[in-house]
Amino acid sequence: MKNPAMVLPDAMKGVRNLLKGVHQGGVPRRxxxxxxxxxxxxxxxxxxxxxxVASAKKAGESDARLHAVAVWREAPFFTDAERAAxxxxxxxxxxxxxxxxAVPDAVWDEAAGRFDEDQLAALILxxxxxxxxxxxxxxxxxxxGPTWN
Length: 149
Fold this sequence. Notes:
Blueprint: H1 4-7, H2 9-23, H3 29-42, H4 46-58, H5 63-68, H6 80-93, H7 105-114, H8 117-140
């Protein structure tokens, strides 16, 4: 089966509008791409990782930074804001792994210190939209590769 959001045209229209809003939130596109890629790797979505790398490269992302997304804490390539974004991503994407707060105060405070409310909204919506697509793709076993898009 194709991705369910592609089967029902009105569903994809809604997703496109959601992503349009995300991209109007003031977060640099490259940061949003890193968030998408980090969440997709956490969720094990090969199709979204493949598509995320292609999209990030279109946004001007370097191979060095793309290869380092999985180890963003140790890599010297990211700004403090770019580090706050994947930290928030990891906390939000791994809600089921937590007891207590989904997003620890320290992670939230770091993100809130780097991004304003519109930007935080964009980041959270990007994480949630990525999780949404990760689950759709995993359910229908969407293959990674040239058939993606």
